[in-house]
Amino acid sequence: MKYLMGVDEGTTGCKAILFTDEGTQIASTAREYPSYYPNPGWVEQDIYEIKKAVFECIEETIVKSNVNPSDIVGISHSNQGITMVLLDENEQPVFEHTIGWQDLRYVDILPELMKEVDQEEYLKISGMQYGTYNIPVLRWLQINEKEKWSKVKRICSHQDWFLRQYGADGYYIDEGCANFLSMVRMSDNEWDERLLKYYNVTEDMLPKVVHIPGTVVGNVSEEVSKATGLPVTCKVCLGNLDANSCAIGSGADEIGTQLLIMGTAGVSIFVTDKDKLDPNGRITVRTNPGFGNWQNYIMTNTGASAFRWFRDAICSMEVATSKLMGMDPYDIITTIASHSKPGANGVTALTCIQGSHTRKKNEKARGSFFGINLGTTKADLAESILEGICFEMKDIMAMNQELSGEVTHVRLCGGVAKSPMWCQMFADILERPVELTKVSELGALGAAMCAGIGAGLYKDCEDAVKRCVKITEIYKPDNNKKNDYNDAFNVWEKYYRIANESIYV
Fold it and tell me: Which residues form the Carbohydrate kinase FGGY C-terminal domain (predicted)?
């Protein structure tokens, strides 16, 4: 039996999961790590804290599995959105912390930067608007950290940085991460000089774009083997941006598939056969790696992380109780939410805690509760947070249908998939059956499938999907709740519009 290691390195924590070549999970380990917020709107992380957590997870997973390490034939990496690692000529980080993908420190200079950009050209070349992601932070650093910026020789995503740590013979980036860096052509996913100029960077500062998921880029180094227990014969294989790993792990290869990835961000991938640009620039159009079709890609800066904020800021008692009872605090909070009702007794939550990315892009948007009264309970607040996250995805699904046609089926992944109550809410609000796969940790599975391609266990992504992906549960919408949720959604839309037009300006 041969085994595959899939690493899912997210914004708030990481997992290392060992799989068989049929996609069966053998053992897993998870760790959390912090982000740092030195100023309002700033988000930073310590790359070495994350590396330590990742390596500990790999080592512990191998020990738990009781497999012969020599039978682990491949490792691949699923990484969070573009949290950039800026390296000097000695491959050492220039800045103490990496800058997180949620970071908004560049917002005040964005209007001036936008004047330098031919938006029509930028959209046509890249498939997105300038400033869709936080890459203008590079310009902020050039202006505000000139001395340190002068030492920057390489711009990495966590994909190419971690592959290098495992033992890759160079810096290699997947199409999804390259797309997030906002400097590749939509047509062929290669760096484009016309886009590079807007960020004052040169191609030699960037990793090589590799187009085939699972491409072998090296073997595990002796140092990493000693630290983790992985054998030096283990292939280091190109992985993917977390969303694309989930697309592979969920088998999102059919036209009309709406994949919702509810992690730190709320991510929507709609699979289409057309590279049709959104004239309003709300939707990023990009390739669907490994499957030969296209994605309409939209994300919110805060998906399930809005629920995590609610847990940490408001539910300290529930967190303490969960520790005493050996339970997941989210299970306790969703149970509390179930004592409210659709519409949360008039409470509406806007969950755009770190800016808005949907119908109206607004980096200044912040989270809010509306409709609180003296009778409002914690159950209503919890229900409204869950509904607010669902409403954003409903709004996104409508945009996809407006641009590219009917959503034929919805597939859900992320921590949300572990909550029957929340899965049912998604089905009710979206008015579509919601499918779950056998494996809930799809980022790690997608990474393991890429490792399997590199190790020669699968021919390609389609072959890996046939071997590893199985739909095991379907939540059907409850029509009795349709009107209540639609009424609540209409109220949410009203507050969302008013807040973006009149408050967060």
Answer: 260-454
